[in-house]
Amino acid sequence: MTAIRFDPERHRGLDPQAVADSLRHWARELGFQQLGITDTELGDHEQYLQQWLAAGYHGEMDYMARHGSKRSRPAELQPGTLRVISVRMDYLPPEVESVRMLAHPERAYVARYALGRDYHKLIRKRLAQLAGKLETEIGPFGYRAFVDSAPVMERALAQKAGLGWFGRNAMILNPRAGSLFFLGELYTDLPLPLDPPFEGAHCGSCRRCQRWCPTGAIVDDAVVDARRCISYLTIEKHGPIPEEFRRAMGNRVFGCDDCQLVCPFTRFTRASREADFAPRHELDRARLVDLFNWSEAEFLANTAGSPLRRLGYERWLRNLAVGLGNAPFSSEIVSALRTRRAWPDDVVREHVHWALSEQYRRRDEAHDPPAAPLVEAGYREVIAKSSA
Ligand code: B12
Ligand code: SF4
Ligand code: SF4
Fold first, then answer.
1. Interatomic CA distance for residues 100 and 79, integer angstroms
2. What does the pLDDT look like over 54-101, one tens digit per residue?
3. Which atom number of ligand 1 is nearest to the Cα of residue 232?
4. Which catalytic residues are annotated (predicted)?
5. Separation of 309 CA from ligand 1 center, angstroms?
6. Which end of the chain has the lower number of beta carbons within 10 A, N or C?
7. Measured between alpha carbons, how far is 323 from 327 in angstroms, rounded to an integer?
8. What sign does the dihedral 375-376-379-385 (CA atoms) show?
9. For a pLDDT cut of 90, what percent of the chain falls above it?
10. What number of CA atoms fall less than 13 Å from residue 234's CA on the CB side?
C-alpha cells in the first residue's frame, strides 16, 4: 500500500484534466473497459447499507457489519482520500454456454466469474500498474487499490463515477455492456476532476430478475436478502444449506448468475480476452458426478489460484451433493453418493443422505405412472371443498 500523501508543493502545476485523460487511456491499455472518477460522498447509500444490515440480510457475513462507517466513508478507511477512481473489467470468456448449462441438470453450473483464475490478484495488479504509470508521470502520490474484499461500497462508487445504474437485481448495469464485469477502485488524494454520476435507471417496467430468481432473494428493487441468495448459500455460508433452498438451487454449485442471464442488457456482454478468465478443468461444462469424485488432493490441485479454492473440500462436497440430489436419477450418481455416506464431516454426510433420498424419490416416481389429468383435477376439487 502506498500511503495517501498528497503534497500540494510537489504537485504544483499539475493539470488534473490531463491526468484524468491519461488515466482513462492507460486503463484501456491495461484491459479495463471503463474508468470513472468520483468523490467520497456516498449520500443515501450509507443509510441503505444500514437498513440492509438492520434487516439481517447479510446473514453470517459478519464482516459486512464490521468497520463502522469506514465502508461508507472512504476517507475514514484511508485518511486523505479525496477521489475514488472506479474501474470495471468484463469477465465472460468467449464461447462459454451459460443458460444451456442450467438446462443440463447432470452438469455443474459454476458462476461465470469463477471459471478461471481468481480475479482479485489480476485486478489489484492492474490497478497498481495504473497507479505506477501515473507515478512515473507526476511523481509520488497517495493511493490504495481495492477489489471486492475490503470495506468499500464498490457499486455505489461505480454508480457515482458514471459506470452504470443499480439494476433491480442490485447489479451495476451498463447500457452497452450489461453487468458481467468486476469492479475495482483506487482511492487517491489527487484532486482529479469528477465524472458525472450515471443518471436514471434503464430497467423501466422490466422485473425479469425478480421473477426468475430461483429463491426469491431480490426482496425489493436493488435489494438482495443474501440469506436467500444462492451465491451466498454456496460460497459464503458455512454449515448446512437450509433445506427450503436446496431444490431451487438445481445444479448451481458455486454462485449464481440467473438474475443476470435473464436480464435483457446481458445481450450486450462482450467476451473477455483475459487468458486468466478462461475456464479451467472444463468447469464451464463438467459433470457433477465427476467433480464430486475428485479426491481432496485433486480438489486442491485443480482449484489452486481459483475462486473455488476458498470453499474448502467439505463445502465443495456439500454443494455438489445438493446438485446431485437435484439431478435426474442415475445409478452412477447413487454409487458416487454412497461412497461418501459415512463421511466424517456431519454437514457433508447430511447433504449426501438428503441427495440419496432425492435420487431414490425420483427413481420411484419414474416407476409410478403419472396421475391422469382429469382424476388429478377431481382430486384437487375434492380437497378444496373438504377444506372449505
Ligand atoms: C457482500 C457481497 C455479496 C453478497 C451480498 C449481495 C448484495 N447484493 O449485497 C452475496 C454473497 C450474496 C453476493 C452475490 C453476488 N455478487 Co457480490 N459482493 C458483495 C460485496 C463484498 C459487498 C456488497 C455490499 O456492499 N452489499 C451491501 C448492500 C447494502 O449493498 P448493495 O448490494 O450494493 O446494495 C445497494 C443497493 O441496494 C442500493 N439501494 C438500495 N435502495 C436503493 C434505492 C435506490 C433508488 C437506488 C438507486 C439504490 C438503492 O444501495 C445499496 C448500497 O449501495 C461486493 C464488493 C464490495 N466490496 O462492494 C461484491 C459485488 C457486489 N459482488 C459482485 C458479484 C459479481 C456478485 C455475483 C454476481 C456473484 C455470483 N455470480 O454469484 C452475485 C450477485 C448477487 C446480486 N444480485 O447482488 C460484484 C458486482 C459487480 C457489478 N457489476 O455490480 C461486486 C462489486 C464484486 C466486484 N468487485 O466485482 N455478493
Ligand atoms: S444471484 Fe441467483 S439467487 Fe442471488 S439474487 Fe441473483 S438470481 Fe437470485
Ligand atoms: S432483468 Fe430487468 S429489472 Fe432486472 S436488472 Fe435487468 S433490466 Fe433491470
1. 48
2. 999 999 999 999 999 999 999 999 999 999 999 999 999 998 999 999
3. 11
4. 148
5. 21
6. C
7. 6
8. negative
9. 89
10. 31
- The residue type of 123 is I
| Parallel/antiparallel/unpaired status of strands 181-188 and 83-90 | antiparallel
Q: What is the DSSP string of 143-189?
A: EEEE-SSSS--HHHHHHHTTS-EE-TTS-EEBTTTBT-EEEEEEEE-
φ, ψ at 196 (rounded to 5°): -70, 145
Backbone dihedral angles phi then psi of residue 2, each to the nearest 5 degrees: -100, 125
185 lines ligand 2 (CB under 6 A): no
206 belongs to an annotated ligand binding site: yes
Q: What is the pLDDT of residues 351-369, one digit of tens each?
A: 999 999 999 999 999 887 7
Binding site membership of 231 for ligand 2 (Cβ less than 6 Å): yes
Atom 2, ligand 2: which residue's CA is nearest? 256
Using an 8 Å Cβ cutoff, are 192 and 16 in contact?
yes
Instruction: Output the ligand 3 site: residues, CB below 6 A.
Output: 167-169, 173, 203, 206-209, 262-265
148 classed as catalytic:
yes
- In the predicted structure, residue 179 carries a pLDDT above the cut 70: yes
Closest CA to 311 of 294, 327, 324: 294
Contact 130, 30 (CB under 8 A): yes
List the domain boundaries for the chain.
16-95+113-188, 208-367
Q: Which three cell numbers stand for residue 191?
A: 484532486
The H-or-E segment that residue 291 falls in is helix 288-292
Widest CA span in the chain: 87
DSSP bridge partners of 254: 110
Within 13 A of 362's CA, how many CA atoms are on the CB side? Answer: 17
- The total number of residues shown for the chain amounts to 388
Ligand 3 center–CA 109 separation, angstroms = 22
Q: Which of 46, 48, 66, 67 to mutate to test the pocket of ligand 1 (most atoms within 8 A of CB)?
A: 48
Catalytic residue selected from 15, 44, 62, 148: 148
pTM of the model: 0.94
List of residues 6+ apart from 184 with CB closer than 8 A: 32, 86, 87, 88, 89, 123, 124, 126, 127, 145, 146, 147, 148, 154
For residue 178, report the phi and psi dihedrals to the nearest 5 degrees: 70, -140
Residue 168, marked binder: no
